[in-house]
Request: fold
Amino acid sequence: AQSVTQLDSHVSVSEGTPVLLRCNYSSSYSPSLFWYVQHPNKGLQLLLKYTSAATLVKGINGFEAEFKKSETSFHLTKPSAHMSDAAEYFCVVSDTGNQFYFGTGTSLTVIP
Amino acid sequence: NAGVTQTPKFQVLKTGQSMTLQCAQDMNHEYMSWYRQDPGMGLRLIHYSVGAGITDQGEVPNGYNVSRSTTEDFPLRLLSAAPSQTSVYFCASSLAPNYEQYFGPGTRLTVT
Reply:
């Protein structure tokens, strides 16, 4: 069985400070892992994905995530938050089957 | 390319009414899926399809039907709407399972 746990439902950071959004997963197989972003009243956009290549994955808009198998984690980071980063972020896991499992989301607020 | 399109954007139904949410993609993607998004619950998979003529159930299929007669289209049918089906519905497509999913803009459905 698979599941995804996003450890924080809300995160607030000041503009220019680092962002850390935490995600833990469980999977019976070697998973594919994704981070998606959803801006208010918008659809979802892929930030980055891990598919068993390099464990440090770089995405769009300066985001990156590190796959740590021993910790079953896939945390999302960004060195310096921008006002435009305020959004909902979803961690997603998929195994060798056909289904994707979403976390419950982390709402990021950026304080000017 | 239009990407993934969904119609309608908004819909209000009375309990017991039926309707079809339309989804189309022009990227020749084999994999298509439907999700519902509810506050605090992330996105949950309703049904998915790995190609024309092939559909399967996701995490929350009850009350919904799907069919896939062409690669491009993947409609979602509500046979007898219930207030519990009030949600935002997203359609997504990808080249194959485990690949990046492209999401439509969503349909906001209210059942009274």
Notes: The CA atoms of residues 8 and 20 of chain A lie 10 Å apart. The mean pLDDT of chain A is 91. The two ends of chain A are 41 Å apart (CA to CA). Chain A touches chain B at residues 9, 32, 34, 42-46, 49, 51, 90, 94, 96-105 (CB under 8 Å).
